[in-house]
Amino acid sequence: MDNNLLEVKNLVINYETDDGNVHALNGVTLSLKDGETLGLVGETGAGKTTLARGIMRLVPDPPGKIKSGEVFFEGRDLLKISAQEMLKVRGQSISMIFQDPMTSLNPVLTVGFQIEEVVRTHNPEMKKSEAWERACQMLELVGISRDRANEYPHQFSGGMKQRVIIAIALACNPKLLIADEPTTALDVTIQAQVLDMIRALKKKLNTSMLLITHDLGVVAQTCDRVAIMYAGEIVEEGDLHQIFKETRHPYTQGLLGSLPSLAVDVDRLNPIKGMMPDPTNLPKGCKFSPRCQWATERCESEHPELRELSGGHMCRCFMTEEK
Known about the structure:
single chain, 323 residues, alpha/beta, eight-stranded mixed beta sheet, four-stranded antiparallel beta sheet, 32% helix, globular
C-alpha cells in the first residue's frame, strides 16, 4: 500500500436536511497508484460526485458533513490539514474537471486570465508575463490557438470550453486529476476528441486520474482499474478484464446487460429493474437486494462486506462465498 498516491479509507459523508439524513457515502474505501487511471462507475445518485468533493474537501457545509474516514494523499490525511494548507493542494497537487463546462468558467473574465490566475495563485513569485505565457502554452496544449487567450467563454463552443477547463486543471501539473463526467454535456464526436486529449495529456504529464462516469464504453477505452458504486458503497472493484469478463456482482452484471449490442438483434433494451433506494431510508441488508433477482433472506437482513476474490478483484455479495 506504500506506493499508493491516493488512499480513501472508510469515508462516510451525510447531508443533513429538513427531510432527513441523506446517507451519501457509507464507508467508501479505494486506492489509486501513481500514473494509474481508476474509473468510478454507477447510476446517478450513487455518490460518485460526493466522493470526488470529499477528496477535494469541497462538500458544501451545511448541509454536507464528513462524518468519519481518512483521505491520504502522498501519505498525508487531507481531512486533518488546515483549510489554508488545503488551498495549496487544490489546483497544484489535485485538480478537478467539473461536469458542466458552461457553468465552470467566469463569463466576465477572459479564458487566458482564468488560466493565468491559477498559475499565479500557486506560483506567487512568478512574473505576470511568465504566468501569461504559461496560460498561452496551456491553451496550445489543449488544441486552442494562443490568439484566443483574450476572448471570453461565450465566444467558445461547448467542446472548446471543456478544453479550457482541462487547461486550467492541468496548468500546475497536478499529480492527481479528478474528472467528474467531463464529457456529459458534449455530443459524441466532441466527447471522443476530449477523451483522446485527456488520455494524451495524462500520459505526457504522468498524471494519475480518477474518472467518474456512467459510460462503460469510456471506461473500457480509458481506465486501468474500475470501481462500481451503488448507494454510496463500492460493490465491485478490479482491473478491466475482471470487471468486463469475470463480472461477479449482480449490479455490475445488470449494468453490462443493459448496454445495447451490435451483434444481437433485440426488440427492447434490458434495464435493471427498479430504482436506486432512497438515501434517507436505505435497506437494512444489501443495498441492492430490492432489485436483485438472486436476493435471499440473508441479503435482506445482513450487510455484505467487500471481500477479495482473487488478484485484487473485490466484490460485495454473499453469492461470491459459494463456488
